[in-house]
Amino acid sequence: MTDQSDPKTPSRTELFFDSDLWWSFKSHKSAVGAAIVLGFVIVAAFLAPVLSPQDPYDLAALELWNAELPPIWMEGGQMPYLLGTDVQGRDILSGILYGTRISIIIGIASVAVSLVVGIGLGLMAGYYGGWIDNVLMRIGDVLLSIPIVLVAILVSSVAQQFLSPAWREAGVAAVLVLAIAMYSWVQYARVVRAQTMVERRKEYVQASRLVGTPARRLMLKHILPNTLTPIFVAATLNFGLAILIEATLSFLGVGMPPNQPSLGTLIRVGNQYLFSGSWWIVLFPSIQLCILVVAVNMLGDWLRDALNPKLR
């Protein structure tokens, strides 16, 4: 009798590369291109200490006699300042790499906080209903009725007033994350609430409740996994939106300070010298911000279409 061994169980990685989602990604040229560009931007940003010719946060490394140098391909440009320098002698390329890292970290952190708050409140509103649902959704309606930038400016300004001067600069990134998350959680809560209201009426949820499964376990282990598909899409798109909001707040002067520049701060500083001839100070950070946000949005659009069962 021939001894036949059991077939090897495929790993999660093998299952992913054999899935329809991976096939959709490979066949979507714009998504592949956006992923390559986004990956390059993120890797370059987090390798900024290795790739940058200068530490833009180290004031002792700035040389004022090298201020407002043009890009290397223009007359007057010099190495190692490939994209030129600003009015303080800060290398534009170094500022962009470090600034991109700050913008990405704030975007990821704000999305993570929004997800935790929005998913938790959405599960509670959809599962319990009643006055809990009414209160949470009315709070969300009030926040959505105010422009997002105005909400972020209000939260950022109020939070910084409660911080001591010693902690004001150190805590500005946390304040920005809080300001962005204060508005963004509503979208996640609404999506999770709608899915939860559908799932709680299904037979497997009713059976779990009859056998005495605790409500928290029921929401986290049974209902939540069935709400993750639209959440992933919303989180991807909101990541790009969070980066734009942070850049807007920094451009308006209520975001990152000049000694810890994000992309928005670099654009704000460079905008003051746009008509003096030093156009490169504002142009290159603006291009980097556009590339980053467009790449994220293209991936989000692909993910939305790939996970939509009506388009399969």
UniProtKB/TrEMBL annotation:
Belongs to the binding-protein-dependent transport system permease family. GO terms for cellular component: plasma membrane. The keyword Transport applies. InterPro entries: BP-dependent_transpt_permease, MetI-like, MetI-like_sf, OppC_N. One of its GO terms (biological process) is transmembrane transport. The chain crosses the membrane at residues 31-51, 102-127, 139-159, 171-192, 227-252, 279-303. It holds the Pfam family OppC_N. Residues 100-300 form the ABC transmembrane type-1 domain. The lineage of its organism: Bacteria, Pseudomonadati, Pseudomonadota, Alphaproteobacteria, Rhodobacterales. This is Putative peptide transport system permease protein. The keyword Cell membrane applies. Gene3D superfamilies: MetI-like. It comes from the Bacteria. It is a multi-pass membrane protein. It is found in: Cell membrane. Keywords: Cell membrane, Membrane, Transmembrane, Transmembrane helix, Transport.
